[in-house]
Amino acid sequence: MGALDGKGALVTGGSRGIGRAIVKRLAADGAAVVFSYRQNEAAAADVVREVAGGLPGLIEEVTEGAYDRFMAVHAKGPFFLIQHAGRALRDGGRIIAISTLNTRLHPPGGALYTGAKGALENFTTVAALEFGRRGITANVVSPGTTDTELLREANPGVTFEDEVAKTALRRLGQPEDIAAVVAFLAGPDSGWISGQNLAADGGLLP
């Protein structure tokens, strides 16, 4: 018997990296998982770098089109997914959003990405309050630097030694590390945790 037997889960972007690890972990714990992905994985990597995963530049360089794309991917889309989840989930359900540690680090060039993820974090906190009367929890997981294919593609040749040195556990995160946190929040033992932002960063931030 798995901790999530009889439960359903929807994971967006579940074909690679952290998303894929989350899908595998939730399925291993017994959940029936539905996930979205792009058919052409090579093209998907290019789209993610251009639209979602990369940083568009300094504030003075940001175009209105880039602003609209980032907000659509990281704020608008997730907002309406949360709205739908609130309508569709049974009492006692779980909403888990994936943000980024960069909303606390504020890297130069990251205004759009961190701004949109910050909006998602606030949406999730409010959802915890609005849906809590039905036993539905809503939490955010904010990964630190995680060793994914996308990270390597976006930073060719980078060894990430500085990030490792700053992390208490002296290594990069693995997708399975993030998936384990998500699985905990999706499971029965997390029922008293809601409205929280969990930093899954190996001890990078105190």
What does this structure look like?
- The chain is mainly alpha-helical and 206 residues long.
- It contains 8 helices and 5 strands; from the N terminus they run E-H-E-H-H-E-H-H-E-H-H-H-E.
- The chain has helices at residues 17-28, 41-53, 64-88, 102-105, 111-131, 149-154, 161-166, 175-186; strands at 8-11, 32-35, 94-98, 137-143, 197-200.
- The strands form 2 sheets. A 3-stranded parallel β-sheet has the order 3-4-5, sandwiched between helices. Strands 1-2 form a two-stranded parallel sheet.
- Strand 1, helix 1 (17-28) and strand 2 (32-35) form a beta-alpha-beta unit.
- Helix 1 (17-28) crosses helix 8 and helix 3 (64-88) packs parallel to helix 5 (111-131).
- The chain is globular, with a radius of gyration of 17 Å.
Topology:
Elements: E1 8-11, H1 17-28, E2 32-35, H2 41-53, H3 64-88, E3 94-98, H4 102-105, H5 111-131, E4 137-143, H6 149-154, H7 161-166, H8 175-186, E5 197-200
Parallel strand pairs: 1-2, 3-4, 4-5
The largest sheet has its strands arranged as 3-4-5
How much strand? Answer: 5-15%
Q: Span between N and C termini?
A: 36 Å
The chain-level mean pLDDT equals 85
Helix content: 40-55%
Give the overall shape: globular
Based on helices, strands and strand pairing, what is the structural class? Answer: mainly alpha
Indicate the radius of gyration in whole angstroms.
17 Å
Tally of strands:
5
* Uncertain segments: 39-51
Oligomer: single chain
Q: Quick one: biggest sheet?
A: 3 strands, parallel
Order of helices and strands: EHEHHEHHEHHHE
**H/I helix tally:** 8
